[in-house]
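re the bet — no i am not wrong, look at it urself. input seq straight from the record:
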Amino acid sequence: MNRLIPAAAAHLIAGLALAFAGVAAEPSRLTELCNTQPTSSASIRVSPELMNEIAAVVADPQRNPDLYRRLWEPVTASTLIIGTAAFIGLSYDPRQDLTQIGAEISADPVLRSSGVQYVAEVGGYACLTPPPDLVPITLTEYHNGILDHYFLSSSNQENAAIDSGAAGPAWVRTGEQFATVPADACHGSRPVYRFYGPAAKSHVFTPDPQECGGVRKAGTGWLYEGIAFGAFMPTNGECPRGKTPIWRLYNNRAAHGDSNHRYVAKLSLATEMQLRGWTLEGVAFCVNP
């Protein structure tokens, strides 16, 4: 995503980061993709000696920092012995892509020579049929007349902060709203990740695991703010039956440190923005009608 701004500024605008103030810091080793799976756990078959060492290292990473990094910095560990087979279950930051972690651990020559035998993702979830209804989320669009920036708010708390002026002057509702749901694997809704670029005073939303993985890397100038909401993914630019496409437009101002994106559900708005010089980037995600 090379059109996003490359440099970070010193501070966030108050208010627009309020809803995500409690997000944990990024782990120091990041996968190339953001996780879209409903699980964040992996099971590794190891020698009993290594099982005990890994458990101790997860509890105290400074015991063996190299081993901790080679294991992609798990946050918890559980042990299990079945007969003569030893297993350790590792859970990770939910943003980390398990497929990549599993492949990297399996291919690590140091781990293999130490007694790692295989790695498996853990699909530890079950869906009721039909799954219970989700509490709907309303996405409210704001425009800043000074910056000429657009923003999507996904909570009443954030709406109240923006309306009160906590995000700074000139933010007003455009009247555009979308209906969506939280991210939920049983409903087929994917997480939409939210990032903030302090230099441009702008946000970007993406459900794309590759784009998310690139944007959250150190040095991009974008700060991860969490999962903003859930949405459904298009296939070849087409939304699933019964879902509404949300188009993403880009203002082409990265060179000026002023990147911004707008998300619209109406083709008339997409056309209007293109006449203003914005680039249509396609269907970003799909929401409820």
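see?? The chain has a mean pLDDT of 88. told u. also The chain has two domains: 18-26+131-287, 41-121. so pay up
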